[in-house]
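task queued by scheduler; priority normal; single chain, no ligands, no partner chains; default sampling; output format set to structure tokens
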Amino acid sequence: MEVVPLSDALGAEIRGVDLSRPLDEATVAAIGRAWEDHIVLLFRGQELAEDRQIAFASRFGEIAARSRPPERRPEGVDYNDAVMMVSNVKRNGRYVGSLPDGEMWFHHDMCYDPAPSRGTFLYAMQLPSTGGDTLFANMYRAYEALPEGVRDRIRGRRALQIYDYAMREQVDISGDIAKYKHHVQPVTISHPLTGRRALYVNPLITARIEDMAETESRELLAELFRFTENSSLIYTHRWQVGDLLMWDNWSSCHARTDFPAGEIRMLRRCVIKGQALHE
């Protein structure tokens, strides 16, 4: 097994590992150490059936069921409850997957849940000719890059995370938000495994900083969201068929670039359960 860094920001490629075969404990432990060090891991050229992808992910935690309720999932598609297809393919006029077309703003997976998922495992099956890249931001470094005065302002602060499955717009929180998935999380977290501090806000799902005037909250969040403009914090992954990416949702957030309308993009996703996060 070889660990090859993908960028100065974060990420590493794991070479010499076939995920379609059962892995021994030493290999799993080595992958786990690399995951903590590099946040995002890439395995290229994998031929993964659904059960093997789930089996691999389960070596790092308990597999979580999908967050979107059954009544809001694509109709007529029978998938394992642990699997979400990220796809723009249509069948009988309906999408067979979720998050179909276009770009998607930076976000942390499941940050609106009381116990945000630990990690996401995404496998590329069909891809467009260009675009549909996934960008990952190192949220340890995003926190470290903040001016000291900003760090002082966010110490002990909490933020509302709220989501309604849109890709490029926040939920309107001026009315009743009870029908939306939401939770208040620390603005910065101490990673449960590494102990390192990470910024834990994002443009798609973080709606406001609690106990702060609306204008001040909006201005402070705009300052915190500037990590999305800092290329030194970001790795851009250009997918190849057979890629399996696993990433840490506590110390990174991610976005997606646009891709040509009418071209197929299909990836298979599963996640492992997390825990409550604390400052």
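post-processing summary
- The first strand starts at residue 2 and ends at 5.
- The longest helix spans residues 25-38.
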